[in-house]
Design brief:
Length: about 110
């Protein structure tokens, strides 16, 4: 699931990061949550499509039938090549909640 720095993205990221901290505090070994940002105007390869599911929520899906293993490889290659990766804590610090955009304000978050 992909979203701009909207209220929904903030809620999901902060909730997931809180869960991570709770698990870590309980002594569990868990991976640090990562946020992948795809820069505006990044070309999407023809074998995947970017779908606007709802408001500011997007998903990458195969453009034709493919095995899950192949889709995972394609997505890994796409993210390795194009994504700006940062841990959730850094993302939260760089994107304060008050600067978030309402999810239905696509005329605002699409310009960012």
């Amino acid at each position: 699931m992909y979203a701009a720095s909207t209220f929904m993205m903030q809620e999901l990221t902060r909730r997931y990061f809180d869960d991570f901290l709770d698990l870590q505090e309980a002594g569990n070994t868990v991976e640090v949550p990562q946020i992948y940002t795809i820069p505006k105007s990044t070309p999407i390869p023809s074998h995947i499509i970017l779908t606007n599911d709802f408001l500011a929520r997007f998903t990458l899906q195969p453009s034709h039938g493919m095995a899950l293993q192949d889709l995972n490889r394609v997505l890994d290659e796409f993210f390795d090549k194009h994504a700006v990766k940062e841990d959730a804590e850094s993302w939260i610090e760089r994107h304060p909640y008050p600067s978030s955009t309402p999810d239905d304000a696509d005329d605002v978050w699409m310009k960012k």
